[in-house]
Amino acid sequence: MAENGKISGKAACYTVEGHIWVEGAEGTFLGVGRVLLLEKIREYGSITRAAGSLEMSYRKAWELVESMNAQAGVPLVVATTGGKGGGGAVLTEAGERAIRLFSELDAEFKRFREKMNGALKKGV
């Protein structure tokens, strides 16, 4: 039985874990993986290179970008088709803001987990 944070004479060790994501009417809008994709697109200037760096197919990356753009109502990523100089992709101001806001939300969730883990260490 549990008594003072102990079960059967052993100290209980629990942790609060989890990931946070933002849901919309059409499903997931933003999550850790989607934000990482946005960051890689910003870094590489290319959906193809961003996808490759994440070991993700171009098709999957493009579907995620299309989903985020559609759900946001404004583009987070603008892609240009290839040509003499090749294609590319850039984050819009809305894309940059999405990364910032999600990062703030994720940091707040981390603080919540740490607070709850501290409370659990005191015993259940």
How is the topology of this model organized?
Elements: E1 2-3, E2 6-7, E3 10-11, E4 21-24, E5 27-31, H1 32-44, H2 47-53, H3 58-72, E6 77-80, E7 88-91, H4 93-121
Antiparallel strand pairs: 1-2, 2-3, 4-5, 6-7
Helix pairs in contact: 1-2, 1-4, 2-3
Radius of gyration: 20 Å
Whole-number mean pLDDT = 89
Helix share, percent = 40-55%
Helical segment count: 4
- The gross shape turns out to be elongated
If strands are numbered along the chain, what order do they take across the biggest sheet?
1-2-3
What's the CATH C level of one domain? Answer: Mainly Alpha
The chain-level structural class is alpha+beta
Low-confidence stretches: none
Query: Any guess at the CATH architecture of one domain?
Result: Orthogonal Bundle
CATH topology group of one domain:
Arc Repressor Mutant, subunit A
What is the assigned CATH homologous superfamily of one domain? Winged helix-like DNA-binding domain superfamily/Winged helix DNA-binding domain
How widely separated are the two ends? 12 Å
Main β-sheet: number of strands, strand sense, barrel status? 3 strands, antiparallel
Number of strands: 7
Estimate what percentage of residues fall within beta strands.
15-25%
Order of helices and strands: EEEEEHHHEEH
